[in-house]
Sequence to fold (174 residues):
Amino acid sequence: MADSTAAKDAFLAVRMNLPKLRVQRLPGTPGALPAVLPVTPNSVTGHGPWVLWLGPSDWLIYALDGESSDLARLVDAGVRGGDVVVTDVGNSLVMLELAGPSAVKLLESGCGLDLSGGAVAAGACAQSLFQEIPILLHRPAPGDAWRVFVDRSLSRHLGDSLCSRHEIRHLRSR
Fold:
């Protein structure tokens, strides 16, 4: 658990209703995957929009602005070819942005990954649990900023847990 001094060095923002798509490859499809989809575990392609590897046939595409239709164009050839299925998950996943010098300590207090030891490199992603809540972590760049994706039904619990347990100074919704 982070101490109160370290906790004052963290900022949490809730980002709802961002464009997010889940892309899944249909079993047994022989076609080539759209080039934008990463094939290495826990890797990410793009710098906005981002494509996160969730599994061998599963990806999350998201952006901080725009429309889901803009994201769908990235995998349009795969959809037309019948190789992938795209689902709009913009309303079912919430993104929490956690930043500041204490962000890693806050995440490690409830997550089993060794984040300070480099378990999630800059520009990579990982799936884990935070106090038994399934999360997807994305570290978009070097530094203290993390993006945490969580099911909407658990987002309030996760946000409240981070704020109350760690006395985060600001919580705002955008």
Observations:
- Residues 104 and 118 are 10 Å apart (CA to CA).
- The chain is about 20% helix and 35% strand.
- The mean pLDDT is 87.
- The chain has two domains: 4-15+92-173, 20-88.
